[in-house]
């Protein structure tokens, strides 16, 4: 369960919206009758939010859950709010439904009290408002953490730490590394020689940047992330016994844009000669592997357990679902969407969704059908033969 | 090769069984003729166990290996023991086969000497007895390790460490964390703010618990495990250039039951609002990814490289074999068994085994058949056409 | 972009070849007219190498890139060099083509100046020469790093560190561990009790060796590698509620040969009773999982995201491409090549290439064809019926 703010730290509903709504979304508070303005200690789902928490409804299919919602306040679209009074939803109403028309405004204001057991925040984008509130609560937690350079951290004399940088216990900042203002490093992070981290980055515990890695502003890097390990490059080595490999030392780096998030235990290898590139706004989930010289376009999102082999270029605004595998030396254009578990083995030019998953079945049924997969070419031949004999 | 106990530390066969057989399994020692009771320094397979080690036969197909077994003692079922004297197995016998009937008893006792070159431990469950002995040897190794709080560990003033807790070098225990009695943390473990670890847990080197993670009693967590990294949650952000994502900060936690083991580099993300749940007795292998809000039922075992996408619920006593991939927002019932490499893309209600793997073949043969996969729908149409023309 | 050597550290072209060409490859320098011998500060691709860098041409298809190459020197085969003067490649020539016949010799020597804007290094194996140069530059970088035992490292009194061993900040070397001469450990590495590391190994930051792990000479281990975590072994435990598992403690170790490289976040589990084995010259990419008792033959190379289940034996000189999955208890012979994303589910005896990948397609097209996969057995029956009715 989410940790709640202590009551004395909790903002009022107005204060919360004022501080958290950094996007200037339209919002209007409709107070529940006879209820004082609540202090909001946390954020919860409709089912589980408690009486000190705020919740939201973004998926209309869940509107039934409003009936038993115990939240102090709920974010609703004006449409969802109005439909509450039109449908037979068994809300815990304290009075007859109001018929006034709600006009959301860009500024947060207080309208007449609604006949509900919770306060309502009208907003045309409840899901984005929820995202902003969640960010606010997490920022609040972060701001309460210790700052400064922990005395067990090992920071090279010639490393440059800008103003307000926090370095946790047992971190190692190597020679020539630079860290931008306001960045926070959790415990046991390592920033290799000459690597550069931008402003306002958040490195959770145990992130590893090798030497020669550049990360832009506002990055969020999770535990176990490794940026800049050697790409997998070997040449057959005729000097040694048959089959031996000579290492191709990887001299490139890794360059990561601004506003990138990288999930736990994801690895991005350094390039062979040039940099491996991760564009602005890219979101990488856990346990992803980007091989050397891969390039990921801006705002592309990749789910967990995906592997992208060497030198492949993926365009902008793509989504790659979990456990997809992309072969090396390919080009995927912008706005390409790859389904989970799909192996992409050739270039993909046109935007669209691409899939290649063997359908699962009960085991013996799968066995029966899979046996035929190995005869498909023969089956087609037999079909052709029949067709010819028809003619 | 397994490390052997020093001779002076090694228990006699009787002592070993007395101390290791914590499950009270039936067992009876049948001494080899003219051999003193051995001290058992380690545990080995039938092929490789040396003369100071104990071995076991659980798979009857391996009984031929008894002939050359050099172990000091071997655990056998009464049936396997008797069949030794019925078959023509060329055992290194020192005398004619005994014909006495062996009556295993619940207590360990010594029967008449057997005409074999190794001592026999009769037990109706040799594999489970082996497991217990292996646990004993590993516990013995653990008990020899240093305990206490290493002076390089960084432990917050308000963290609560119960009696007998061991904290290795370079660990970090953050504010408000609580660790139950008898738990051991290897080097460089991190327990985030407010996280709770139960009693008698074993954290190998370099385990990371974020803030707000709860782990039950007797957990075994391996190196590189990350519990509580952010789930992969983003909302389209209309404020920014097309395609940008707004982070949905993940406010839930991770709750892990009792008797759970989690393998190296496995990651379990924190929930968006509620906790990600791992039930009692769950066993997770290496490099598994459990996304936010996943729920794993009691005693389910998941092999390596499996990914489970967000909000999926898996029942009790399931087994998910290696590299299977489970899509998000699904429900898998109890006693569902998923084959390796299988992608589960819809709910699975009925117990049973489910498979979906493309059969491999020699490459050119695969190419020929795979070319037809992309025409299957057309093939079926052509077949229908032929069938109609038959009528 | 690769970090360049400072001008005063940069070797001349002759010095570089003399020092880097440890394989004694044939090489001959052909100086560009009117250009002094350059100092080489780095290595770059034909497209991006700058005027202080050396480049190479190994793939004849890229020879067009020579025209605009700004490198100080380029490694070429004699054939490629000659063809420059035969083809109409628009090179930046300063004079008419030379017609002299180039006779490469085993020793580096200087021939007559070539009429090109870059110096030429003639070599019959440009790719291997490039590998050697890249190794030289990386070794140069490594040699500039601090050595010795960092004061924050925790080294057991009875650990044995041979001459010239470097141990980075926050490392932990446990009791009885032994590290061979010239090995370097980056920050936060852990070498468990009694583990043995050979000579001249390079452990990047945050490598974990459990107890009882042996690694040979010249290993390169990347961040997040975990050698020796417990194999995934459990026996049904009838003592507890239905479905509970009894742990089989893993008493074997891991034994890694000489000249092995292991990529970031790869895990190799310890054996149940005997060791898990990784042969000499084996190359493992990132995020690979080798389960307990796996054996990998010499010079086999495995790409990222591959899983090999327990007790499987893979031969020598195999290549396993990315995201392939090998089931347990199998034997793959020597010189077997497995394609990416392929699941190997039975023994593979004959050398060759093996593939099993579901072909991807545009999503709706995939849907149409995949629907037939579940009817293949029935389809074959219908085809047979038609064939019989033909007769």
Automatic annotation (TrEMBL), chains A, B, C:
Pathway: Bacterial outer membrane biogenesis; LPS lipid A biosynthesis. The active site is at 292 (proton acceptor). Catalyzes the N-acylation of UDP-3-O-acylglucosamine using 3-hydroxyacyl-ACP as the acyl donor. Is involved in the biosynthesis of lipid A, a phosphorylated glycolipid that anchors the lipopolysaccharide to the outer membrane of the cell. One of its GO terms (cellular component) is membrane. It comes from Eoetvoesiella caeni. Belongs to the transferase hexapeptide repeat family. LpxD subfamily. It catalyses: a UDP-3-O-[(3R)-3-hydroxyacyl]-alpha-D-glucosamine + a (3R)-hydroxyacyl-[ACP] = a UDP-2-N,3-O-bis[(3R)-3-hydroxyacyl]-alpha-D-glucosamine + holo-[ACP] + H(+). This is UDP-3-O-acylglucosamine N-acyltransferase. It is an enzyme of class 2 (transferase). InterPro entries: Hexapep, LpxD, Trimer_LpxA-like_sf, UDP_GlcNAc_AcTrfase_non-rep. Residues 38-89 form the UDP-3-O-[3-hydroxymyristoyl] glucosamine N-acyltransferase non-repeat region domain. GO terms for biological process: lipid A biosynthetic process. Keywords: Acyltransferase, Lipid A biosynthesis, Lipid biosynthesis, Lipid metabolism, Repeat, Transferase. The gene is lpxD. Pfam families: Hexapep (PF00132), Hexapep_2 (PF14602), LpxD (PF04613).
């Amino acid at each position: 369960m989410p940790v709640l703010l202590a009551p004395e730290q909790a903002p009022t509903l107005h204060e919360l919206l004022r501080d958290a709504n950094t996007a200037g979304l339209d919002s209007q508070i409709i107070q529940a009758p006879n209820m004082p303005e609540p202090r909001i200690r946390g954020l919860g789902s409709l089912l589980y939010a408690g009486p000190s928490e705020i919740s939201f409804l973004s998926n209309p299919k869940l509107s039934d859950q409003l009936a038993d919602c115990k939240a102090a306040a709920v974010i609703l679209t004006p449409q969802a709010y109005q439909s509450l009074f039109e449908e037979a939803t068994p809300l815990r109403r304290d009075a007859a439904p109001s018929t006034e028309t709600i006009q959301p405004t860009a500024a947060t204001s207080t309208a007449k009290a609604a006949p509900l057991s919770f306060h309502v925040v009208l907003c045309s984008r409840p899901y984005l408002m929820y995202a902003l509130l969640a960010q606010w609560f997490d920022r609040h937690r972060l701001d309460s953490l210790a700052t400064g350079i922990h005395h067990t951290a090992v920071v090279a004399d010639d490393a440059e730490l800008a103003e307000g940088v926090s370095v946790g216990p047992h971190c190692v900042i190597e020679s020539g590394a630079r860290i931008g203002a306001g960045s926070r490093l959790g415990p046991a992070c390592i920033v290799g020689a000459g690597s550069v981290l931008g402003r306002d980055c958040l490195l959770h515990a145990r992130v590893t940047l090798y030497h020669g890695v550049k990360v832009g502003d506002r990055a969020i890097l999770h535990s176990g992330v490794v940026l800049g390990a050697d790409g997998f490059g070997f040449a057959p080595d005729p000097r040694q016994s048959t089959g031996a490999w000579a290492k191709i030392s990887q001299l490139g780096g890794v360059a990561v844009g601004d506003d990138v998030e990288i999930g736990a235990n994801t690895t991005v290898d350094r390039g062979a000669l040039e940099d491996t590139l991760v564009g602005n706004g890219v979101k990488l989930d856990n346990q992803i592997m980007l091989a050397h010289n891969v390039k990921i376009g801006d705002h592309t999102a990749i789910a967990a357990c995906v592997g992208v082999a060497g030198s492949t270029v993926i365009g902008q605004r793509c989504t790659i679902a979990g456990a997809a595998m992309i072969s090396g030396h390919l080009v995927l254009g912008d706005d390409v969407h790859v389904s989970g578990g799909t192996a992409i083995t050739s270039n993909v030019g046109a935007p669209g969704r691409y899939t290649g998953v063997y359908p699962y079945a009960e085991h013996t049924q799968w066995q029966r059908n899979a046996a035929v997969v190995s005869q498909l070419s023969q089956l087609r031949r037999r079909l052709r033969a029949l067709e010819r004999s028809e003619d």
